[in-house]
Design brief:
single chain; Butyryl-CoA Dehydrogenase, subunit A, domain 2; 6-stranded mixed sheet; 4-stranded mixed sheet; 14 strands; 47% helix; globular
């Protein structure tokens, strides 16, 4: 099934508890903090089923038509189809919706490639992951993932006299029908717009905390679930002209609280196993496939940033300055570097034991490392090209609504070949992407969405072919000898 945008909006309208401060949001599709972003997600649902996109963005199996980000790749051609699906979705939102509807399906598509691994956790969990994958695929489900524990919480020292129930999500009861979970999970990016959330652990769980190893899927309108939004930037956007990105593409982030929520066994995928609650993502292609989507999404965002850099250079009359051309050339080279890394993920794909053909993990993690380490530098470079121009503009677009002020604005702020209004429009866009509160959130998101820097390094360390590299050194060392030494000594 392929949902229309209207059907998607209807499906997230009722039965959920979303809080902005103390305010209970009754309908995220109508509330001024969420409605435009909801429309942006609805646009994705409509466009991916449009005639010009259906060949690429849908797939068929067993008589069922579904979104091609659920396609289980068995060839390089399948990987290219998935890539183009991710690319189009990212291009429609300029890479600003990081957890778009194609993100978590990339996780679950990788997880379902190895149901036997789940049966190794507990018999029947393999069936659970296969049924959940079919459920998501068949109903065009938009799911978030809440796989991080509350920041700052650590298990208490046994010597501490103060005892406190940990706030982290855990199983508090279980019976023949399922488990009951209680606690808090982070960070539910886009959760306010989703049908369900996948709860789990991308961080290690300590021995003795087996009840925190629960991995399950929960409908967001289930009794006991509440979504606690951070400050929504859409709500405070002055207008689309003044805040063209924050007003439409604030996907929101939220803490998700589970108060004695019942989860049936068929929606449980890991339980009482601290090792496997994290390992399921690394021992399957799930983590790599999801981060491939993130790489593609970042590439489209990078194209927007580089395009703004070029137009800002034109606006300032500096395009012909050699130092500016040098800067723009460096940005263009960086964009090409990332695109090459992404193409390598596809064209040097990896065979999976169960007959699947997945993205090259090393190149995924190299690109992930590249993105998280270069985003701030790239943004700072473009801010330098902008200079102080953004602060020379009027406070907001209301000046354009006053005939006398507008005439003055055009007289004194225009330059040859450029109207003042157009200069203001470009600078508003640039600032919303690079300097506003919305931009600050993206700066933090790009730095930490896949974990801190040392985690990025560990992914590349763990997937590096160290034995191959070191064998090459050993072979070279064995090819020559110390003066006076005999071969073999």
């Amino acid at each position: 099934m392929l949902l229309t945008g209207k059907e998607y909006l209807e499906s997230i309208r009722d039965g959920r508890r979303v809080y902005v401060g103390r305010e209970r949001v009754e309908d995220v599709t109508m509330h001024p903090a969420f409605r435009n972003a909801a429309q942006s997600f609805a646009m994705i649902y409509d466009r991916k089923r449009a005639p010009e996109n259906r060949d690429v963005m849908t797939a068929e199996q067993d008589g069922e038509t579904f979104s091609s980000y659920f396609l289980l790749p068995r060839s390089r051609e399948d990987l290219h189809k998935r890539f183009e699906t991710h690319r189009r979705i990212a291009s429609w939102t300029h890479g600003l919706l990081g957890r778009s509807p194609d993100n978590f399906p990339s996780y679950v598509s990788g997880l379902v490639m190895d149901p036997a691994m789940f049966d190794g956790i507990r018999q029947g969990f393999g069936d659970n992951i296969q049924k959940y994958y079919r459920h998501m695929r068949g109903n065009d489900i938009f799911a978030s993932h809440t796989v991080t524990n509350p920041q700052g919480w650590r298990p208490p020292n046994p010597k501490d006299t103060e005892k406190r129930t940990p706030p982290t999500l855990r199983v508090v009861d279980e019976d023949d029908a399922g488990v009951t979970i209680n606690g808090l999970k982070m960070l539910g990016t886009a959760t306010a717009f989703c049908h369900e959330t996948w709860c789990g652990n991308l961080q290690p769980v300590a021995p003795g905390a087996e009840k925190e190893s629960i991995t399950c899927a929960v409908p967001l309108n289930a009794p006991g679930v509440s979504i606690w939004s951070r400050r929504p930037y859409e709500k405070y956007a002055v207008s689309e002209f003044d805040n063209p990105l924050a007003s439409r593409f604030d996907e929101n982030d939220a803490a998700v609280l589970f108060e004695n929520v019942r989860v049936p066994w068929e929606r449980v995928f890991c339980h009482d196993n601290v090792e496997m609650t994290r390992a399921i993502y690394m021992r399957t292609p799930g983590h790599a496939m999801a981060n491939h989507q993130a790489n593609v999404r970042f590439l489209e965002k990078l194209k927007l940033i580089v395009g703004i850099a070029g137009l800002v250079a034109d606006m300032n009359g500096a395009r012909s300055v050699p130092a500016v051309q040098f800067t723009l050339g460096r940005l263009a080279a960086m964009e090409a570097t990332l695109e090459g890394l992404i193409m390598g993920q596809i064209n040097a794909g990896e065979a999976h034991p169960n007959g699947y053909h997945t993205v090259n993990r090393r190149y995924v993690y190299a690109a992930l490392h590249w993105c998280t380490n270069h985003h701030a530098e790239i943004c700072d470079t473009v801010r330098e090209l902008m200079g102080a121009g953004v602060f020379q503009m009027p406070a907001d677009a209301s000046v354009l609504q006053d005939e006398k002020l507008r005439a003055l604005f055009e007289t004194y702020w225009s330059v040859p070949g450029q109207q003042a209004q157009d200069r203001m429009k470009l600078l508003n866009l640039a600032w919303d992407l690079l300097g506003s509160d919305f931009a600050g959130r993206h700066m933090q998101y790009e730095k930490f969405y896949a974990g801190p820097g040392f985690v990025m390094n560990s992914y590349s360390y763990l997937t590096g072919p160290w034995a191959e590299w070191e064998a090459q050194v050993d072979e070279l060392l064995a090819s020559y000898h110390a003066p006076g030494a005999r071969p073999g000594t």
